[in-house]
Design brief:
315 residues, mainly alpha, Endonuclease III, domain 1, Arc Repressor Mutant, subunit A, 16 helices, 54% helix, globular
Length: 315
């Protein structure tokens, strides 16, 4: 059977066996907890930034019980500069739930995974497939791009549900092979079928890619605006959290004031961090990394502290 006649999955898996990167969460001795940690860390974060954080995290918390035994604020501190630090709190909550509901072992069942705090459909499917070899379509941005181009012939992916419907018929029947195919599609999108300047001459699907066959038609829809970071509330939130991560204990308000000169935006970012449970205002006017469950009374105290810190004339 020639490459052009072979099932798409077989071609992609064969390429993957030759070209896959040696990533720590793909190694045979990786426990399901390591797979879950990697999938949460990799959300909207490049692999190169995740690897050192992943290794450090598992060195400290090699199992869910180890993380659950430490305060949530330690998880936020350990998260460092990976971005979207609410993921650290969700991982801590998931670790606690794994201990109370599943005896400390990450569950293999899709519904049980979906019931964990912070675990959505993509992460649940990824853990079930990559940690347990279950047959589930795992569709991330990279997979959507490959299948949209190769099968549908479009430059840009459509809806998540529509792209899932494109992937499912391609999956091999054997669960272990299906899981391998899911990882292979992801890798193909990350290394070859990239958003800009795809390496089509190196692609194992070049001879059957509908987008290439049709002359790489441009997407007719409106362009998505590029995401910015500098000057946004996200940047301010990150700067505030960095102060608290570096502190050996709670930090005074003036240390937070020093990181951003615009008081209204700084207060808004700080308020958002408190709402998300990432920062906890203390009665003495200092601030600490949060994550602790608070009573309604503590919540009122927090809001009062924030209002006082904002000062007159800000919102």
């Amino acid at each position: 059977m020639s490459t052009s006649d072979a099932p798409l999955a077989a071609v992609v898996v064969s390429w993957y066996e030759r070209a896959a990167r040696d990533l720590p969460w793909r190694r045979p001795d990786t426990e399901p907890w390591g797979v879950l940690v990697s999938e949460v860390m990799l959300q909207q974060t490049p692999v190169a930034r995740v690897i050192p954080a992943y290794l450090a995290w598992l060195a400290r918390w090699p199992a869910p019980a180890a993380l659950a035994a430490d305060p949530p604020g330690d998880a936020v501190r350990m998260w460092g500069r990976l971005g979207y630090p609410r993921r650290a709190l969700r991982l801590h909550e998931a670790a606690v739930a794994i201990g109370t509901r599943h005896g400390g072992d990450v569950p293999a069942d899709l519904d049980a995974l979906l019931a964990l705090p912070g675990v959505g459909p993509y992460t649940a499917r990824a853990v079930a497939a990559f940690a347990f070899g279950r047959r589930h379509a795992v569709v991330d941005t990279n997979v959507r791009r490959v299948v949209t181009r190769a099968v549908a012939g479009h430059a840009r992916a459509g809806s998540a549900a529509g792209d899932l419907a494109l992937v499912e018929p391609l999956m091999p029947e054997a669960p272990a092979t299906s899981a391998r195919f899911a990882a292979a599609l992801m890798e193909l999108g990350a290394l070859v079928c990239t958003p800009r300047s795809p390496r089509c001459t190196q692609c194992p699907l070049a001879g059957r890619c509908a987008w290439r066959r049709d002359g790489y038609p441009e997407d007719a829809g409106p362009r998505r605006p590029a995401q910015t970071y500098v000057g946004t509330d996200r940047q301010v939130r990150g700067l505030l959290l960095e102060v608290l991560r570096a502190a050996s204990g709670p930090a005074l308000a003036d240390r937070l004031d020093a990181v951003w000169t615009e008081p209204a935006q700084r207060a808004r970012a700080l308020d958002g961090l408190v709402t998300d449970g990432l920062v906890h205002p203390l009665p003495d006017g200092t601030y600490a990394l949060g994550g602790q469950a608070r009573t309604d009374n503590a919540e009122r105290t927090s809001r009062s502290s924030l209002t006082h810190h904002r000062g007159p004339g800000t919102t």
